[in-house]
Design a protein that fits this description.
By secondary structure, the protein is of the alpha+beta class. Helix content is 21%, strand content 29%. It has one domain. It contains five helices and twelve strands. The chain is globular and about 40 Å long.
C-alpha cells in the first residue's frame, strides 16, 4: 500500500488491517483520496520510512495553475449511487455521509469535499472526493511526485493515475476526482475505474 501524509481521525483508528479467508487485508490509513486531496503525497510503504504525521507539504511552493480551476459546488455524495458502490466493492452500503471538517487532521484546501460510503464488506469504506485544481498543479502533485508507485490509467478523464493499491486520481474539467478503498488488495483498479467513470458523468 502507500503512506498518506494527512489522516482523518476515522481511518487512522480503522487502519489496523486484518486477515479474512486467509487473505491479508492491507489498509490505507485514511482514504487514499482524503489525504491526497489535501497534499497529493502518496508514496509506497514497502520501502518508505515516512510516517502518517510526516507530511512533506508542497502546496505552498507549487506554482499557481496556469489554467482556470472549477469552483466546487458539487455534493460529493451525489456522485455515486449507494447500490452501485455496494455491487462494485462488494458489500452492502450501510451509511453515506460527507466528512466534516473535524475528521481531518489538518484543514482541507478550499473547495475540497469528501464523501464516505461505509459498507459491511471486506473493503471497508469507499471515499469519493473532489477538489478544484489547475492542470499544472495536478501534474506536480499526482504525476511527477512519485512515479515509481504511480501508473497512468488510460481513457479515464483527461488524465488518471493509480497509486499504490487502492487509490485512483482523475483530472477532468478543472477538478481532481479521487476514489479510494480503505482495505485494498492491489486488484482494485478495475473497480475504481468503474466507479470513477460513473462519477465523472455527474460532475
Amino acid at each position: 500500500m502507500f503512506a498518506l501524509t494527512l489522516l482523518t481521525a476515522r481511518w487512522n483508528r480503522l487502519a489496523l488491517g486484518g486477515v479474512e479467508a486467509g487473505v491479508m487485508r492491507r489498509a490505507a490509513p485514511i482514504a487514499v483520496l482524503a489525504a491526497c486531496l489535501l497534499s497529493g503525497a502518496c508514496t509506497s510503504t514497502s520501502s518508505s520510512s515516512a510516517s502518517p504525521g510526516s507530511s512533506s507539504r508542497s502546496s505552498a511552493s507549487t506554482p499557481e495553475p496556469a489554467t482556470p480551476v472549477a469552483p466546487n459546488v458539487i455534493d460529493p455524495c451525489s456522485l455515486l449511487p449507494g447500490g452501485l458502490v455496494g455491487r462494485t466493492l462488494p458489500g452492502s452500503v450501510t451509511k453515506v455521509r460527507e466528512l466534516s471538517a473535524d475528521e481531518f487532521a489538518s484543514p482541507p484546501p478550499a473547495g475540497t469535499a469528501v464523501c464516505a460510503y461505509e459498507t459491511n464488506g471486506r473493503s471497508g469504506e469507499l471515499l469519493v472526493g473532489i477538489r478544484p485544481m489547475g492542470r499544472k498543479q495536478y501534474d506536480a502533485l499526482f504525476v511527477e511526485r512519485d512515479r515509481a508507485n504511480t501508473r497512468r490509467v488510460r481513457n479515464v478523464g483527461e488524465d488518471a493515475r493509480y497509486s499504490g493499491c487502492g487509490g485512483l486520481s482523475v483530472y477532468a474539467n478543472g477538478r481532481v476526482l479521487q476514489v479510494g478503498i480503505q482495505f485494498a488488495d492491489c486488484n482494485a483498479l478495475g473497480r475504481l475505474v468503474t466507479l470513477a467513470r460513473v462519477a465523472l458523468r455527474r460532475l
